[in-house]
Amino acid sequence: MQYVSTRATSASASRNPQQFSDILLGGLAPDGGLYLPQEYPQVTGAELDAWRRLSYAELAYEILRKFATDIPDADLKALTAKTYTEQVYCNARGDESAAEITPLRTLEQSAGKTLILQALSNGPTLAFKDMAMQLLGNLFEYALAKNNDELNIFGATSGDTGSAAEYAMRGKRGIRVFMLSPHKKMSAFQTAQMFSLQDPNIFNIAVEGVFDDCQDMVKAVSNDLSFKARHKIGTVNSINWARVVAQVVYYFRGYLKATTSNDQKVSFTVPSGNFGNICAGHISRMMGLPIDKLVVATNENDVLDEFFRTGVYRVRKSAETFHTSSPSMDISKASNFERFVYDLVGRDADRVHALFRKVETHGGFDLSGAPGSDGDEFRLVGQYGFQSGKSTHVDRLDTIRMVADDYGIVIDTHTADGIKVAREHMAEGVPMIVLETALAAKFNETILEAIGTDAERPAGFGSIEELPQKFVVMPADVARMKAYIAEHTGL
Ligand SMILES: *Cc1c(COP(=O)(O)O)cnc(C)c1O
């Protein structure tokens, strides 16, 4: 299996075929594009039948080996077996469903309509990013050990991503994590989750500023190419290909658990921000998984909903990006969207290059086919199963209340956006699976506002704010940051 950049010309693609291991530790392709397989591996009906009997870890192995063809099977099997265990994914439930890794729960079944919740938040940080990040930690450690190399992950977080990365990389040989976060701006729970880690390879840096200041520091350090090379700096952002592939597994799992035969179809609704999660759904569908609809659910930051309703992709400025009660979906542009656009325009890398250059110069592009637009491929969106919808703060409160009253469970704010939109796209005879992306305990303030009581905390998280914390406070000063990294990498 070889990988190409969404912006590669055919000449450069054939000169630079990349293997899975080549792109594992990186982010963007050198031409600024994103990596995708040259073609999507196909899954047969016989395979799907056989996969119905597998554990989650075994299924992950079967799917990953189609993409990571340059990693020996035995190694891949060991890596997936080590990652997808009941011990790693037991936090949220701790009951008999923990062995399922992503257990399904039917919320409603009436008049031929079925609404199912698939839990993706059983990992150590109680959000779906653990599904892929835990595997990434093991893959990174494996790849670095093979080359006797090391890696210093440098990133900025406003909450979920940073903690998922730290819990995936803690204690891993050859890896250090330097994570910037805005000082005193995260919730007490999120802060405690990150800062209570005492592992010597985890460095939490609280920056005196806002999230954008943290991100600017990451950019400044990454743009210093000689510093970056000397200190072996890398990232784990949502465009990482291995993260996307790891997410493909739970679409297959959800389908196999919600159906009994391969002539049945299901739809998925996905609370979306950077388009990473639902991009894995698109890839699953392209591989032949019988998915009917892929429904993109956004919050007030509706860049993606706007595109899937109108064909116009219009990124927002920082000032137009709302801070909402589903904060992990507060994005101004969707970093993985380019992967879908590549397929939508018939894998024409020159078109993709031109369209995303227009994003930089004009803030977006228009594929609606209207006079003066950049193309008419919007007419093809339906062929890929995509639909969309939007949810607001009031919708979230209503949905959290309704789900608590009707089904007796308390869902988080992002999942509430998903359920709200899913209910607008239900079809008779096609089960609708909503991906649950976080646990309510992480966003307690809004839960309190919706139902007047606290969200239940999973066992072991009861007094997380009381644990000793390890972090340093630093001004938003790039030179200080570089000195700190140099001192602690010893490179
Ligand atoms: C990251 C995140 C999302 C958005 O996922 P994308 O892959 O960026 O679309 C949704 N919900 C939660 C809880 C998240 O942490």
Structure overview:
It comes from Massilia horti. InterPro entries: Thr_synth_N, Thr_synth_N_sf, Thr_synthase-like, Threonine_Synthase, TrpB-like_PALP, TrpB-like_PALP_sf. Belongs to the threonine synthase family. Its cofactor is pyridoxal 5'-phosphate. The protein is an alpha/beta fold. The protein is built from 19 helices and 15 strands. Strands 3-4-14-9-10-13 form a 6-stranded mixed β-sheet, with helices on both faces. Strands 8-5-6-7-15 form a 5-stranded parallel β-sheet, with helices on both faces. A two-stranded antiparallel ribbon has the order 1-2. The two termini are 35 Å apart. The mean pLDDT is 93. Bound molecules: pyridoxal-5'-phosphate. The site of pyridoxal-5'-phosphate has 17 residues, from helix 12.
